[in-house]
Amino acid sequence: MPIDPTPLIVLALAGLSGAALLIWLWRDQTRRQAALRDMAARRGWQIAITLSRFGAPERTVLRPEGETQGHWELTCRRQHNDGGGVSEVASTEYLRPDPRWREGLLVLGPPLPAETSAMAGPLLAMMQGPMGEALLAKLVGPGLAHQASHLRLLPEVAGATAFASRDPADRADPAQIAAMLATWQSRKSGEAGRPILILGADGMRLRLRHQLKTPAEIEAFIDLGAALAEALDR
What we know:
Layout: H1 6-43, E1 45-50, E2 58-64, E3 73-80, E4 88-96, E5 106-109, H2 114-125, H3 130-140, E6 152-153, E7 161-164, H4 174-181, E8 196-200, E9 203-208, H5 215-232
Antiparallel strand pairs: 1-2, 2-3, 3-4, 4-9, 5-7, 5-8, 6-7, 8-9
């Protein structure tokens, strides 16, 4: 009885398709890394790219080559979670030690969703405890949530939600910073696509809740960080 070759052909085609996909992904990754290195060389930046292996996060880190561009660092990070819950954790952070606000903490981010905004007044009036921390974590992530008791919601700032530990009038203009943050053009919709600025005793942090990948968007984000630092350098 002759053997039907169809299953073998299907398996062979599936194998070839899988191999072709892997080759395409490898080439795409190689092209993207080369483009990032070209961008970094053009701007005079150091770059280090670490691929995700054995559960370690994928990471792209950029820094200036010399002293003329100030001290800053950008980290684009993505990590897959195989243990359940959130399947992927990703972020982009631009950090600089200066400017800073030694006496206080300022957080500026996207407007709160309508359902959260309706609860903001009562919750922020007593910002201590897990409910206040949960509200702040929704905006800036869990890293700063422990400082919730020190922050108060500022009077309405157009197009943003602003928290501060004290009156920032002598240190920054929240409306100006919010307007600058609003210029960011993101490929990511919703809150995750909106940048968050944090100014405190440790310096300035500009963060996104997703990973930037292309040279154009990474370059634009670093330029936004530099412009915000200049506006806050007073």
